[in-house]
Amino acid sequence: MTQRTVFVNGDYVDEREACISVFDRGFLFADGVYEVCSVLDGRLVDFEAHMRRLRRSASELDIVVPWDDPSLLEIHRELLRRNALEEGMVYLQLTRGSSGDRDFHYPEMATPTLVLFTQAKALVDAASGHRGIRVVTQPDWRWARRDIKTVQLLYPAMAKMAARNAGVDDAWMVEEGFVTEGASNNAWILTAEGRLVTRELSHDILPGITRAVVCELADALGLVVEERAFTVEEAQSAAECFVTSASSFVTPVIELDGVAIAEGHPGEVVRRLRERYIEESRRRAL
Ligand code: PMP
Asked: What is the pTM for the complete model shown?
């Protein structure tokens, strides 16, 4: 496999040469935020919205983003060019940097660390997008500010391992009987009355960029979106279930905790939303 060129604090370097301080707070405290932009036809999907959320996440943690959007766009594009990436993702991570030691308090003078790398992946033709995924629920044991996109992803990793060990594809997080979101995506149902339901924005979930676009597309397709919490039982008896995220677009959920959704086949509405989302993303990509 060819080695990637990655971006580290201003330099484009071979992935084997890239280095970060052992005192970096991203490493010691998970003190950092991230974004993932998908790439279609060598272009970036919803770049501006991802950068807006990056700035919002960083500002909630008093991390300064020392790059403006045009520079960040240029870095993304240069990485795509250097790695000849046509389809996949660009991962961006910004940490508070290092004070040269370990101390809980934020350092007064630290230069944030910025790292970006590309990941090649077939997104449009992903088998899961067509066949659907099977999901199990897990207690939502993450912290209480899930609206900030931080790199502390140990619990989502544990939840995904629990799903894998149960022989399924992914996990949905549940708190007090209500679904918050997927381990790395937003959760949706289509009710028997034909209304789309996804949890309202709050500190409980990440404000998904894909979620926001799907809300707009649903509107254009004449579908009503209800932003409210739903229970596991409501999802299990829903007409359709699906998840949204930058790297999975719109993906059908065909089983939840062993119960088949829509007889275990991707539904018509999720299929249409996925198609529309891909069309619209290709059209708008930068
Ligand atoms: N919720 C969580 C917990 C996530 O990790 C993600 C993916 N980053 C999402 C929702 C979906 O967000 P987006 O559509 O911006 O990828």
From this structure: 0.96
